[in-house]
Amino acid sequence: MNFIIDRAQGQWSEVLSALGIDKHYLKNKHGACPVCGGKDRFRFDDKEGKGTFYCNQCGSGYGIKLLQNYHQWRFAEALNQVAKVLGIQTQVKNHNFNHRINSSPPIYKPNGLNTKELKKRRDSLIYTWLQTQIVSSGDPVDCYLKSRGIPLKEYPYSLGHHPHLAYYDEKGLVGHFPAMIALVRDQNNKMVTLHRTYLGKSCKADVPTPKKLMPSMQPRASVGAAIKLYQPVNGIIVLAEGIETALAMHVATELPVWATISAVGLEKIILPPSIKEVIIAIDNDESHCGQNASSKLATRLLAEGRRVKRIIPPTSGQDFNDLLLEKSI
């Protein structure tokens, strides 16, 4: 079925967009990953018109592989969907075509990780979590959250304070900073990665990317996962993208909250059957990524038989933490 891939060459941006990947991700700039949700680790460079991409966590590949990763499609299903967009009348059966079509460009590291690399990831995550301290009154995490209008008497287990965490950029070590560490868990409540917010004095640290996800224990393990700040009560949970927005909703409503880290994380979240009612606190971002993700999530949750309520701040550019600071909620 090489002719489908050949026909798509030079058209991958349009094909991917038609199949649900927002154009916001397809601009050949470093930014959020549509698969894992990492804030500044993805680039769609579309070399030679082949839809090439690279993510520090998910790996790399051609356009067909990006579709597979995003929708969790088998190779044949992805080919069939591309064919439909291109107007090609064909039906590819579910066979493994990987021996005929390589979905990863040779210039990049393959998506698969060997045992040594996976162990290194796991050890780094566990070591960082073991160094994390319980948040206490007056420490940098407590001061930061209070500056965001979020005073908590007791902090959830999923949040911690690291007093001296290394920050690296592409050139190497930049320095050490206090950090808010958040435990990201999958649908089985197993740790898959850690979210880091590097801090200054009652604010985020003055670094290019103060919020970062560590590489997950397994590729794509963070898909569907969340920072489970407070456990559901009476089958109810509030979902928000950021930690601060989720905690702002908790302060305002006293309801249990989870943070999904990004719009992609919001769309892909996997909820246990025990959750019957979901309130989605949407960021009113100018790109509409949050709104689009929440709409897709709501459609899926309703189809699963759950009750869903979507709420959004009235002004573009606002989230619910902004409203809390303005005492509007």
Unreliable stretches: 95-111
The main sheet comes to: 5 strands, mixed
- In CATH's first tier, which class of the largest domain applies? Alpha Beta
Which CATH architecture of the largest domain?
Alpha-Beta Complex
- Secondary structure tally: strands: 12
Q: Compute the number of helices.
A: 10
And the CATH topology of the largest domain?
A: DNA primase DNAg catalytic core, N-terminal domain
On the 0-100 scale, what is the average pLDDT?
Answer: 88
Helix content: 25-40%
Strand content: 15-25%
Structural class of the helix and strand makeup? alpha/beta
Order of helices and strands: HHEEEHHHHEEEEEEHEHEHEH
* Number of self-contained structural domains: 3
Which radius of gyration do the C-alpha atoms yield? 20 Å
State the distance separating the first and last CA atoms. 55 Å
Mass-distribution shape: globular
Strands of the biggest beta sheet: in what spatial order? 8-10-9-11-12
Quick rundown:
By secondary structure, this protein is of the alpha/beta class. It contains 10 helices and 12 strands. Strands 8-10-9-11-12 form a 5-stranded mixed sheet, with helices on both faces.
Q: Which helices and strands occur, and which strands form pairs?
A:
Layout lengths: L1 H7 L3 H7 L23 E3 L8 E3 L3 E3 L1 H9 L3 H12 L28 H17 L8 H8 L11 E11 L2 E14 L5 E8 L12 E3 L13 E2 L7 E5 L2 H11 L3 E3 L3 H6 L8 E5 L7 H15 L3 E5 L8 H6 L4
Parallel strand pairs: 9-10, 9-11, 11-12
Antiparallel strand pairs: 1-2, 2-3, 4-5, 5-6, 6-7, 8-10
Helix pairs in contact: 1-4, 3-4
